[in-house]
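ugh ok fine here u go
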Amino acid sequence: QPSPWSPSRILLDPKEMEYAMLPLAFACVILAGFEVLARLVVPVMGNVLTRTMQDKSRRSVPVQSSHHDKFDAVDWLCITFSRCITVPFVYHLLVYCCVSPCVLWPGGAGGNNDNFPQNMPAALFTADGFVDANAAIVEFLAENVIAGNATKVVTAGATKTAWDANLGKTTSAIVHYAVSVILMYVTYDFFYYWFHRTLHLRSLYKFVHKHHHRQHAPTRGNLDAINVHPFEFICGEYNHLLAVSLVGNGMRAAGLGGVPIGAILTFVVLGGALASLNHTRFNVRFGAFSRLYSFAHPKKGGATPAYEVAAHDVHHRLPTKNYGQYLMIYDMMFGSYERLVDKTSSSKSM
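structure:
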């Protein structure tokens, strides 16, 4: 009986070799995605989302602190690690989406494909299990996406929910998709807020998070965003998987089937873009929602955006403020929110 790590099965069968080489091609796609995100997606999003501002002077976040101009060897080591560890994270997320009954694919089918190795994900730690999992992923995607109508991926499964009778299939699908995305961001940021705040404890700060705060005025987008300690990046990435799992199980328990695969795709890809935008000077902000905060803090005035690049810029200058990644709701709830004050414009007006 050959060892579970024996390469004989892979080398003797060209088809098995294809499945074994799948992760290599997968890694190349993910790493290429980083370049597209940094060089195309983030600049385009930033310019488009700020172009609607009539006051051109407010389209960029003012620089109010020192800039970490040149990356050293430690910076590039952290950036390289973050890029590389994203590959297994996305792979694990894909496996979870394929095997979990809480993830809805086109046609309303959940995961849990019978062709996957038993005892997932433990099977991934053997050569045979790894190859079998890759083969099952290819087959599952072919059956549920490629062979079907790929446009249904975004709202997959929503037409099977209990809302159909009241809202109609199309409306139900859109609402299901939107609610799933919002809940995943709200769930993610709850755990991220407390994790991030914990990293700022004096006893821990110098060991992990201090490296990221060498940059006081982020400008490089994705490069500044992923220039973090390896422990911090791993926890932040897999927090996405935790949010997907919790929201999916919660919606399934509520009789809504689970989370559409398209909502998960939006959550992860858009999340990467927003985290990168947080480390630029684009003054992107949207989703004003906190009239209650304005009522409780009348001197600070105005509704607080759900997402605002300037809020994260404040955090890089004032490390005990604005711990949220995407949303400021928990900072407002727990007293750590601080709005950006444009010192330049205020000094000009005096």
